[in-house]
Design a protein that fits this description.
Elements (H helix, E strand, L loop, with lengths): L10 E2 L1 E6 L10 E2 L6 E5 L2 E6 L4 E6 L5 E6 L5 E6 L6 E8 L4 E10 L2 E6 L5 E6 L5 E6 L4 E7 L8 E6 L6 E6 L2 E8 L4 E6 L9 E6 L5 E6 L4 E5 L2 E3 L3 E2 L6 E9 L9 E2 L5 E6 L4 E6 L3 E7 L16 E11 L4 E6 L4 E6 L3 E6 L4 E7 L7 E3 L7 E14 L4 E18 L6 E5 L4 E4 L6 E5 L7 E6 L5 E6 L3 E8 L2 E9 L5 E6 L5 E6 L3 E6 L4 E7 L4 E6 L5 E6 L3 E6 L5 E6 L6 E6 L5 E6 L4 E5 L5 E5 L6 E6 L5 E6 L4 E5 L49 H4 L6 E4 L27
Parallel strand pairs: 1-55, 24-29, 36-59
Antiparallel strand pairs: 2-58, 3-4, 4-5, 5-6, 7-8, 8-9, 9-10, 11-12, 12-13, 13-14, 15-16, 16-17, 17-18, 19-20, 20-21, 21-24, 22-23, 24-25, 26-27, 27-28, 28-29, 30-31, 31-32, 32-33, 34-35, 35-36, 36-37, 37-38, 38-39, 40-41, 41-42, 42-43, 44-45, 45-46, 46-47, 48-49, 49-50, 50-51, 52-53, 53-54, ...
Length: 742
C-alpha cells in the first residue's frame, strides 16, 4: 500500500532589504538617466538598486567578478567587463536595460577587462585589457560584433588604465594610464584605428581618471602624484586624429594654491593621488583624493597661465579651493544624481550624498568591505542584529534598514559575535586571540581576555545565564571561561580536535556544548564535569552545528554539501539531506520553534527547509558570491544572510512557514536547585555573583539612542599595553648597588 505524502511547494524567497556594493571598481557606480536607479557591480552580478523604494535586483551572466561597468547616455544599454583566472579570457557583455537580457558579448581580452565605455550616440563600446592583455577592442553597436583590435600602448610606455569618450563625436576616444595618454580615431569602414600621442613635454605621470568638458576642447586627468593635468585636444580630424597642423598637448599640471606660504612653496597636491574627477559648469572641478578628501576647486583665471612658466616646481598652483570635506576610504566614483547632488562611492563600500550648493554630506549606504563571518540576533529581540567582519562589529536596524553602531578593531578580523542573554553586552572573539566584550549602545570596551587562544579565536558560544562563555580556537582547543563583573577566569580546556573549531553551540539547559571541527568530528562536552560525552564523525569538514531547541538532536553541515541529523544521547545518525551536489554548505540557522531552518552555501543559494519532512520549501538566489553566514530572527518571520563580498540580505519568510510551538502548551523544564549540605555560612567577601546588574546600557535601547540616518563609530583601545621601563636602571635586574640599603 502506497501512502501519499503531501509535498510542500518550493517558493521563491523575496529579499526585504539588501546591503551590498563593490566600491573597489573604479567608476563602477552609475545612475540610470531615466529611472534614477543606481547601477553597480556586486561580485559576478550587476545590481540595479532603487534607493527611494529600497529595492534591488540583479543581472547575472558573468562567470567571475565584474571589473568595469558603463551605462549608455540614453540608458538603453549597459556594458560590463570581468576579470578571470590566469590563462582564461575575460568577457565583455552588452545588456539591454529594459529586458535585463544579454544582447552581445565577446571574449577577446585575456584575463581582465580594465575599463569600458560607450562612445557618443551609442555607436561603439570601447574596452581596454589589463596588464596581461594590453589591447583596445572596438565593439560595433549596430552589428553587435567587434570590428577592430590594436595594442593600447607603445613599448616604451605603461598600461592603459582608463578610457573616456568625447561628448559630441562618436568616432573619437581618449585612453590614459601609466605614462600613457593617447587620442584615438575609429575608421569603421576600414575597420582600423588611428592614434596620436598627447604631447606631455617633460611631464611623466600615472593617470588614474580622466574627464572631458562638454565642448570637447579640454581634458582633465587625475594623477598618482596628486596633481591635475589639463590638456587641449584640438579635435577632430578622422585621418590625423587632431586638426591638420596641430596636435593635442599639455597646458600644465595643476595643484591647489596655499596663500599662507611664499611663492615656490604655495602649491598643494592631493594625498594618495587624484582618484576621481568631475567637470562642473563655470570651469569648476569636483576632485576626490586617495585619502578620502573631496574638494570643489576653480581655476585662478585672474592670473594668466603664462606667468607660471618660471615657477620653480613642476606643479603650478593654478587651482583655488572653494570648499572641502572628507569621507572614509579612497574615492572610486563620482555620480551626478541631480545638478546639485552627487553620489560619492569609496573603496570601503560606502555611498555618500553630497549637495554641492549647501555642501552637506550624508551617508546613504554602508556594508562590510570584506566577508561577513558571523550574524547574530539578541535573545527575543528582532529589531536589531549584529554582524562580524574585517576590523569591525556592526549593529544593524531591521526596520530602518541601516547601520546603527560600528565598533572598530584595526588590522584584525572578528570571527564570531554574540549578545549576552540579558542584552547588556556584546561578546566577540578575534583572530588575534583576544576575547572582547562591549556595551551595546556606546560600544565601550567592558573587558578583554588576551591570549585566549594562541593561534587566534574562531568560534564562540554564550550561556543563557551569562555566567560563562565557551570559545574555540584555530589550534583546535575548546575553552570555558567564567565571567564575573570584575574578573574573568579560565575554568577548563577541552582537547580532542586536531583542526580549527568552526562552530560552537550550547543547549538550552547550559549543561552541554557541542563543537564542530574541520577534522571531520563533532564532540559533545559536559560543561559541569569538563569531559567528553559523545562524538560523531563523518567524511567531511564540518562547517556549522546546531542544537534542536529541545536539545535532543543536533544538526550539522559540511564541505560535502550534506545536512545531517544526529541523536544526542548515543550519536546515532538519523537522516541525511543533500543540500548541494557541487559545493559546500557553510552555515545553518534554525527558528525558535524548530520547525524550519535555513542553509547557505558556496553555490550562492539560500534554502529554507522543513525540519520534520526534510523538504526545501523556499529558495533564494540573490547573492553574488559564496554565502558563509546566516541567522534566523527570534520572531521567525525573517532571517539574514551574509556573503564573502560583504553584502547582507534580509529575507522575508512566507507566513505559512513562520512555525508554531511543538507542542503548543508544552511544559518548560528547569534544572533542580542543589540543596546545600550542612550549615550555610554567610560569605564575608562578595565575589559579585549575587550583585544585581546596574541599570546601564541594554540592546533594546539602541534604537532610541541612535538618531535616524546616523552611525556611531567607536574605535576599540589597545588591549595589551607595553610596560614602561622603570626610571631606576637597576630596577629591572633587582640589583641593590649599596649594601647598606640591602
Amino acid at each position: 500500500m502506497i501512502m501519499a505524502t503531501a509535498v510542500k511547494e518550493c517558493q521563491h524567497l523575496q529579499p526585504r532589504a539588501i546591503f551590498g556594493i563593490n566600491g573597489k571598481v573604479e567608476n563602477g557606480v552609475r545612475q540610470h538617466p531615466i529611472t534614477q536607479a543606481a547601477i553597480f557591480p556586486l561580485g559576478n552580478k550587476i545590481a540595479i538598486a532603487d534607493f527611494k523604494k529600497n529595492t534591488q535586483e540583479f543581472v547575472a551572466g558573468h562567470t567571475n567578478s565584474i571589473s568595469c561597468l558603463d551605462v549608455s547616455k540614453s540608458g538603453k544599454y549597459i556594458a560590463s567587463g570581468q576579470v578571470n583566472h590566469m590563462g582564461f579570457r575575460g568577457y565583455v557583455i552588452v545588456w539591454d536595460y529594459e529586458s535585463r537580457k544579454e544582447i552581445g558579448r565577446h571574449d577577446l581580452h585575456k584575463v581582465k577587462v580594465q575599463a569600458i565605455c560607450f562612445t557618443a550616440e551609442e555607436r561603439f563600446v570601447i574596452s581596454i585589457g589589463g596588464k596581461d592583455d594590453g589591447s583596445v577592442i572596438v565593439f560595433d553597436m549596430q552589428t553587435f560584433t567587434p570590428i577592430c583590435r590594436q595594442p593600447a600602448s607603445r613599448a616604451i610606455s605603461g598600461n592603459a588604465l582608463t578610457v573616456r569618450p568625447l561628448h559630441n563625436n562618436p568616432f573619437f576616444f581618449l585612453t590614459a594610464g601609466d605614462r600613457h595618454l593617447r587620442l584615438w580615431s575609429i575608421l569603421r569602414e576600414q575597420k582600423k584605428l588611428y592614434v596620436q600621442d598627447v604631447q606631455l613635454a617633460s611631464k611623466s605621470r600615472q593617470f588614474y581618471c580622466a574627464r572631458i568638458d562638454k565642448k570637447d576642447e579640454f581634458a582633465y586627468l587625475g594623477t598618482g602624484t596628486g596633481d591635475i593635468v589639463k590638456i587641449v585636444l584640438n579635435c577632430c580630424d578622422r585621418d590625423n586624429v587632431t586638426r591638420p597642423g596641430s596636435s593635442s598637448g599639455i597646458l600644465g599640471a595643476f595643484g591647489t594654491h596655499n596663500p599662507r606660504k611664499p611663492t615656490g612653496r604655495d602649491c598643494n597636491r592631493y594625498v594618495n593621488g587624484v582618484r576621481a574627477l568631475y567637470v562642473l559648469e563655470e570651469g569648476r572641478l569636483l576632485i576626490g583624493a586617495g585619502d578620502g578628501g573631496v574638494e570643489l576647486v576653480e581655476e585662478r583665471t585672474e592670473i594668466p597661465l603664462i606667468n607660471f612658466r618660471e615657477y620653480p616646481g613642476p606643479t603650478w598652483p593654478y587651482l583655488r579651493t572653494v570648499k572641502r570635506t572628507r569621507v572614509s576610504g579612497r574615492i572610486s566614483s563620482f555620480v551626478r544624481s541631480t545638478p546639485e547632488k552627487f553620489y560619492i562611492c569609496t573603496d570601503t563600500n560606502e555611498i555618500y550624498m553630497l549637495n554641492i550648493s549647501t555642501w552637506v554630506l550624508k551617508l546613504l549606504r554602508t556594508c562590510h568591505a570584506k566577508a561577513v563571518y558571523f550574524i547574530t540576533f539578541p535573545k527575543n529581540y528582532a529589531a536589531v542584529f549584529a554582524t562580524a567582519g574585517h576590523e569591525s562589529i556592526r549593529i544593524w536596524s531591521l526596520n530602518r534598514k541601516q547601520e546603527l553602531l560600528r565598533i572598530m578593531v584595526y588590522n584584525f578580523n572578528c570571527a564570531a559575535v554574540r549578545f549576552a542573554q540579558d542584552g547588556t553586552s556584546i561578546v566577540s572573539v578575534w583572530n588575534d586571540g583576544i576575547i572582547r566584550a562591549f556595551t551595546p549602545i556606546t560600544g565601550r570596551l567592558i573587558y578583554a581576555i588576551p591570549n585566549a587562544h594562541n593561534k587566534g579565536c574562531s568560534a564562540l558560544a554564550v550561556a543563557s545565564t551569562g555566567r560563562f562563555i565557551v570559545t574555540g580556537g584555530i589550534e583546535g582547543q575548546v575553552r570555558v571561561w567564567k565571567i564575573e563583573p570584575y574578573r574573568q577566569d579560565l575554568v577548563g580546556v577541552l582537547k580532542d580536535h586536531s583542526g580549527p573549531i568552526t562552530s560552537l553551540d550550547i543547549n538550552y539547559l547550559d549543561t552541554e556544548v557541542i563543537s564542530a571541527c574541520t577534522d571531520g568530528s563533532c564532540v559533545i562536552w559536559d560543561i559541569n564535569r569538563m569531559t567528553r560525552k559523545q562524538v560523531v564523525t563523518s567524511n567531511t569538514q564540518f562547517m556549522s552545528v546546531l542544537y534542536f531547541p529541545t536539545g535532543v538532536q543536533i544538526l550539522t553541515c559540511g564541505s560535502d554539501g550534506r545536512i545531517i541529523y544526529w541523536m544526542v544521547y548515543n550519536g546515532a545518525l538519523i537522516r541525511e539531506l543533500t543540500a548541494s551536489k557541487k559545493s559546500s554548505v557553510n552555515c545553518l540557522s534554525m527558528n525558535a520553534t524548530g520547525d524550519y531552518f535555513v542553509s547557505v552555501g558556496s553555490d550562492l543559494q539560500v534554502k529554507l527547509w522543513d525540519y520534520n519532512s526534510g523538504d526545501v520549501v523556499g529558495v533564494g538566489s540573490e547573492h553574488a558570491s559564496s554565502v558563509i553566514s546566516a541567522a534566523y530572527s527570534p520572531c521567525g518571520k525573517m532571517f539574514v544572510t551574509g556573503s564573502t563580498d560583504g553584502s547582507l540580505i534580509i529575507w522575508d519568510v512566507p507566513e505559512e512557514y513562520w512555525g508554531s510551538p511543538n507542542p503548543v502548551d508544552g511544559p518548560s523544564y528547569q534544572l533542580p536547585k542543589a540543596q546545600p549540605k550542612g550549615k550555610v555560612v554567610q560569605s564575608r567577601v562578595d565575589s559579585g555573583t549575587r550583585l544585581k546588574p546596574a541599570p546601564g546600557e541594554n540592546i533594546n535601547g539602541l534604537l532610541k539612542a541612535t538618531p535616524k540616518d546616523d552611525i556611531c563609530c567607536v574605535e576599540c583601545p589597545p588591549c595589551a599595553k607595553k610596560e614602561a621601563k622603570a626610571a631606576d636602571p637597576f630596577a629591572e635586574c633587582k640589583i641593590v648597588p649599596d649594601v647598606r640599603k640591602c
